[in-house]
Design goal:
Elements lengths: L1 E2 L3 H11 L7 H5 L10 E2 L18 E2 L10 H8 L2 H20 L5 E2 L2 E2 L6 H16 L9 H4 L12 H10 L19 H10 L4 E2 L3 E10 L10 E2 L8 E10 L5 E6 L10 H4 L3 H14 L9 E4 L6 H8 L4 E5 L27 E6 L4 E8 L1 E7 L8 E6 L2 E6 L5
Parallel strand pairs: 7-11, 11-12
Antiparallel strand pairs: 1-2, 3-6, 4-5, 7-9, 8-9, 9-10, 12-15, 13-14, 14-15, 16-17
């Protein structure tokens, strides 16, 4: 038996095992993973399949919402309803009047301001922006589209001067609010809150989800409270970061979160392995992102940035299972399962497996050689060893793998 358990951790486990609650729920709820200094891992232990784990199924659209997705425009308005655009029109006109009050000539963007923005104009403006996104012209600014209207006839719905005016005064939220100083997302809060509320309401959740992040390169000083620096990103070291929870079968996104500086995440830890403090913040992020999955027996998959034994235990408190790859320096993992890179150089070692089981929490930690060493953690699988097809040179070969794979 491989044990990495201190005296303090052993006392915690004794209390856990002596609990009268046979269901184990109270045991988990009473466990503070930050106080655990070690877990007991046994390479010879076995686990039974989870009886409360949801059977495989994809996300599906709820029948009552089928009419919302008859056409592309109705689907668009299901996520961004008219009320949101009315709010944008109100705030933009409010800012325009304030801007005009400072101008002796009653002009905006060099043109006379004839009338307030209407809801119809705002929808046209947003439609033009969507077209520009789908048909980009690298090296040209937005004015180019009006000079080539025969190629881009959709710009004919709005004069260039009016587009400039709306672009100049576009506001999503009030510029007078006292919340500006404390909320980094104040300027986009209405649209962000609307998307968060609407994005997951139309589907019945499936059995498997993935938690990951996406990024959009940006170096603008206006986004300084949101921009993340990561030197390992080839597509843009300075970027916005979005956390996404998506169905593993249909890729349906049911939750989104924008990273801000007030998240207290130490950015260096994102690519250097992390500290205990940043691990606590990361676990809070994981729990927040997986709230739509609570108490449903759903499995969430993630990469080695998120995965750890402590995150798996925290998720089990809410009947959410997980699996993911591990970094070698994560807390509470057994050193027994760790492979060195030198061990993977031998072609005959492909398919080599080391497994350790924590019976108390139903966790499986595994090391596997597949060209390179891969280390994994799972609360959703057992220690069984099926085979998988892997390509070796030009041929496919059956190799032993963990159930986690």
């Amino acid at each position: 038996m491989t044990t990495i358990l201190t005296e303090h951790g052993r006392l915690n486990l004794i209390k856990l095992l002596l609990s009268d609650d046979k269901g184990g729920v109270n045991d988990l709820n009473g466990t503070n993973v930050d106080e655990l200094e070690g877990l007991e891992w046994d390479p010879k232990e076995t686990l039974e399949p989870r009886v409360d784990k949801m059977q495989p199924r994809p996300c599906t659209l709820k029948p009552q919402f089928l009419p919302y997705f008859d056409t592309p425009i109705s689907a668009f308005r299901a996520f961004l309803p008219q009320g949101l655009f009315e709010k944008i029109v109100f705030e933009s006109n409010k800012y325009a009047r304030k801007k005009i009050a400072k101008s002796e000539r009653h002009t905006i963007s060099g043109n006379y301001w004839r009338q307030d923005i209407s809801l119809h104009e705002m929808m046209q403006f947003m439609g033009i922006l969507i077209h520009m996104t789908l048909l980009p012209v690298p090296g040209r600014d937005y004015r180019y589209y009006w000079t080539q209207s025969h190629l881009y006839p959709w710009v004919d719905c709005m004069k260039l001067f009016r587009f400039k005016q709306i672009r100049s005064v576009l506001h999503f939220n009030s510029s007078d609010s006292i919340e500006r100083s404390s909320d980094p997302l104040h300027w986009v809060r209405p649209i962000y809150a609307t998307i968060q509320e609407m994005i997951g309401r139309y589907v019945d959740v499936g059995s498997e989800f993935s938690l990951d992040e996406a990024s959009a390169a940006c170096r603008s000083s206006f986004g300084r409270h949101l921009i993340v620096y990561n030197p390992s990103k080839n597509c843009g070291k300075f970027h916005f970061r979005f956390y996404l929870l998506c169905c593993s079968f249909t890729y349906t996104c049911i939750k989104i979160r924008i990273h801000v500086k007030t998240d207290e995440m130490v950015e260096d830890d994102a690519f250097q392995g992390g500290t205990d403090e940043s691990a606590k913040v990361l676990n809070k992020l994981i729990l927040d992102m997986t709230k739509p999955l609570y108490n449903k027996g759903i499995t969430v998959n993630f990469n080695n940035y998120y995965a750890s034994p402590s995150a798996a235990i925290d998720l089990l408190k809410h009947r959410v299972f997980c699996r993911g790859t591990l970094r070698r320096n994560k807390r509470l993992i057994p050193s027994y399962i760790l492979f060195k890179k030198s061990e993977a150089k031998n072609k005959e070692s492909r398919g080599a497996v080391k497994i350790a089981v924590n019976k108390t929490f139903g966790l499986v930690a595994a090391g596997w050689i597949d060209g390179n060493p891969v280390h994994m953690i799972s609360s959703a699988d057992t220690e069984r060893l099926p085979t998988v097809q892997r390509k070796v040179g030009r041929d496919k070969k059956s190799v032993q793998a963990t159930q986690v794979v």
